[in-house]
Amino acid sequence: MGVVSPEVHTDTGQTDSEIIGRMHTDPESFGTIFDRYYPAIHGYVSRRLGQDLADDVAAETFLAAFDRWQRFDTAYDSARPWLFGIASNLVAGHQRAEARRYRALARADQTTARSVDGPADRIAVRLDAQAVRGRLAAALEQIAPPDREVLLLVAWGDLTSEEVAHALEVPAGTVRSRLHRARTKLKAALGGADPTATKEDL
């Protein structure tokens, strides 16, 4: 039995709102939304939960979106914040797995720092990167989940504050205060560095 590959939809040049607006007569058009955003959603979930859960949670995100397409507010042209909101809700159901991932990354940082073999330059670069990743993971684990959610949607989901507010269905002021708290805590844990600075901050 061969593997059935999904039909690839080409980008139609239409807004997400226009595509989702056609869903009642053309449900297959949702494939375009999937093609546009699956890589971004999968990447975000993978960074939050790891590769093992990313495939399932990303697929669940699009299944939930397909099942709830009538809830999409067509006043917005882009489905990106809506999809990240669904993904964030699903990630929240895996908070224990996320916390375990951060602890494992922090431990891996300590273990790797003790086991050094091989060419010095290559190992030094790898250790520096892993040390930063380990400290970042440990710092992220210490941030309150609602604040961390906002921080990671901005940093890893590449959403603006307004898009995060739309995704999480909270006021923009709440997003800004959560983001400020999370960044303050993260910078303190990382000695003043903010690896989450975005274009919006510049």
Q: What does this protein structure show overall?
A:
The chain is mainly α and about 200 residues long. Among the domains are: about 15-90, Rna Polymerase Sigma Factor, Chain: A (Orthogonal Bundle), CATH 1.10.1740.10; about 145-190, Winged helix-like DNA-binding domain superfamily/Winged helix DNA-binding domain (Arc Repressor Mutant, subunit A, Orthogonal Bundle). About 65% of the residues lie in helices and about 0% in strands. Mean pLDDT is about 80; it is low at about 1-10 and about 110-130.
Summarize the structure.
The chain has 202 residues and is mainly α. The chain has helices at residues 16-21, 30-49, 51-67, 80-92, 95-114, 120-142, 145-155, 161-168, 172-189. The chain is built from nine helices and no strands.
Low-confidence stretches: 1-10, 112-130
User: Mean pLDDT, rounded to whole units?
Assistant: 81
SS class: mainly alpha
Coarse morphology:
globular
Strand content: under 5%
Number of strands: 0
Secondary-structure element order, N to C? HHHHHHHHH
- How far apart lie the N and C ends? 54 Å
CATH C-level of the domain at 16-92: Mainly Alpha
Question: Helical segment tally?
Answer: 9
CATH topology descriptor of the domain at 16-92: Rna Polymerase Sigma Factor, Chain: A
**CATH architecture descriptor text of the domain at 16-92:** Orthogonal Bundle
What is the helix fraction of residues, given as a range?
A: 55-70%
| Largest β-sheet summary | none
